[in-house]
Amino acid sequence: xxxxxxxxxxxxxxxxxxxxxxxxxxxxxxxxxxxxxxxxxxxxxxxxxxxxxxxxxxxxxxxxxxxxxxxxxxxxxxxxxxxxxxxxxxxxxxxxxxxxxxxxxxxxxxxxxxxxxxxxxxxxxxxxxxxxxxxxxxxxxxxxxxxxxx
Length: 150
Fold this sequence. Notes:
Blueprint: H1 2-38, E1 44-50, E2 53-60, E3 65-71, E4 77-84, H2 91-100, E5 105-114, E6 118-125, E7 129-136, E8 141-148
Antiparallel strand pairs: 1-2, 2-3, 3-4, 4-5, 5-6, 6-7, 7-8
């Protein structure tokens, strides 16, 4: 009788554990397929889960960039972050930065996109200061933070 109860309990627990695995595996496979469709040129990436979301970290060696893409379980993009150098920033925005922050070098760019917004967070610097500036697609610049270098 003890063996039968043990086998019954073990089968119930195993069924519960394995019942959750196909969703995770299928969703992760779905996310990988969707990511390949959205970013066919990217070959180096890793998929992680964060609650009900999937986060794909990637690097694009050809474009010297990297980023993150957040997906829901159905494969819909929620938000993207792309990191790159100033040379890859659209020329129009580079010109606006040069006009307003003449003499400052563009160190890094983070391009952020979600359903509500698309903007660039840009790190500028010179020998004495560092600036974090946001720009929208139209080149409207907003100083977010200014630091003195030590």
